[in-house]
Design brief:
14 helices
């Protein structure tokens, strides 16, 4: 049983320690405060790259002021006070004590560029985490009028962040991430089950539509039995045999996918047709795209949460995860694309002659009298 602290007891012991990058930022800022000219060696980061507002304000202040003369700076602290004054405009909690502590904590100012590279890597991790979080949030936001469109836009934003990280951190040996995939446990969705059953019933009643719905796959279904029945329907239509609840039942029997359903129950499910297969198919595919976006966001977050994952491993793992969503995007665009306009037949010589009517015959030319 957890111990309840006393009302006057200090709870600072329960505060988690800062992450390693916090100490790296301190070392970088200390190096720049000690030797401001080293700012010219720093590339790839800005004030927003730091994990705290105080560190961001200090870095911004250092970059906004001309570097002092190294000889004077070694004996005069006026430049440090000017930096503190500017930084306090963004972070009022900064104190002279903390600035001098940063100077004391840095023992190797010549390593400033290496510290900056670490700060850049952790900033890339936070940027990707924020993009993945927005993707997850959008996938579950039922208030959006066009959920799939919004989710795909967020997925494109995640891909953009991944591309930027890849440009900043070149590939290296052993780039495959080692983080295990998070467990996938989809909750039971009664609405999804009903829509899948309606799709199967309407597709059985109108089997000609099944051949035109190749954008829908068995993996889009939430119920394994429904996925198996969709494969049965697809197989029957490909073979060109009659499709009705009885033939679908027999195909399911041949494939051994009846599950716990009795034949009578299955016949009853397939006979209840409402609407069109395309409508219910799009509903099933929409839910599948959103579920895929959720899995992708969770997978990327698992990479980010593993501190042993390098920036390029984040790139490799995220791109692999996004590939699944890219495939779902292509199928969604195929399903929702407006029908192509019918092409006008190219006129042939015979059809042109038929439209022109019978040829006119010229009277014979008169003979020239000799």
């Amino acid at each position: 049983m957890p111990r309840t602290p006393e009302p006057d007891e200090d709870d600072l012991a329960t505060t988690p320690p800062p992450p390693p990058v916090f100490h790296v930022e301190q070392a970088l800022l200390g190096a720049l405060l000690l030797e401001p000219h080293r700012l010219s060696e720093i590339t790839g980061i800005g004030a927003s790259s730091f994990s705290t507002a105080a560190h961001a304000a200090l870095f911004g202040a250092i970059g906004s002021m001309p570097a002092p003369d190294p000889v004077e700076h070694a004996t005069d602290a006026s430049w440090l006070h000017e930096v503190l004054t500017v930084a306090r405009r963004q972070a009022r909690g900064l104190s002279p004590t903390y600035v001098h502590a940063l100077v004391q904590v840095c023992k190797w100012p010549q390593h400033a560029a290496a510290y900056a590279r670490i700060v850049e890597a952790e900033h890339a991790r936070r940027r990707l985490a924020a993009a993945a979080h927005r993707l997850l949030h959008t996938a579950h936001d039922v208030s959006l009028p066009h959920r799939v469109t919004s989710v795909l836009a967020e997925a494109a934003a995640v891909a953009g962040v991944v591309d930027d990280v890849a440009a900043r951190f070149p590939p290296h040996a052993g780039s495959l991430p080692r983080t295990p995939a998070p467990p996938t446990s989809a909750p039971h969705d009664a609405e999804a089950v009903d829509e899948e059953l309606l799709l199967l019933a309407t597709a059985t009643a109108y089997p000609a539509s099944v051949e035109q719905m190749r954008w829908l796959t068995a993996d889009d279904f939430t119920d394994p039995l429904h996925a198996d029945l969709w494969q049965c329907l697809s197989a029957l239509t490909r073979r060109g045999v009659p499709v009705d609840p009885v033939t679908v039942l027999w195909e399911a029997q041949q494939r051994g996918v009846l599950g716990t359903r009795t034949p009578r129950e299955l016949l009853g499910l397939l006979a209840d047709s409402v609407g069109s297969p395309e409508h219910w198919g799009e509903r099933v595919l929409q839910r599948s795209v959103l579920a895929t976006a959720h899995r992708v966001g969770r997978r990327i977050e698992s990479f980010i949460a593993d501190p042993a994952t390098t920036p390029y491993q984040l790139v490799v793992g995220s791109r692999r995860a996004l590939a699944d969503l890219s495939a779902a995007r292509a199928r969604w665009q195929h399903a929702t694309a407006p029908p192509a306009p019918a092409k006008k037949p190219t006129p042939t010589r015979a059809s042109a002659a038929a439209r022109a009517g019978p040829p006119t015959t010229k009277p014979p030319a008169a003979r020239i009298a000799r």
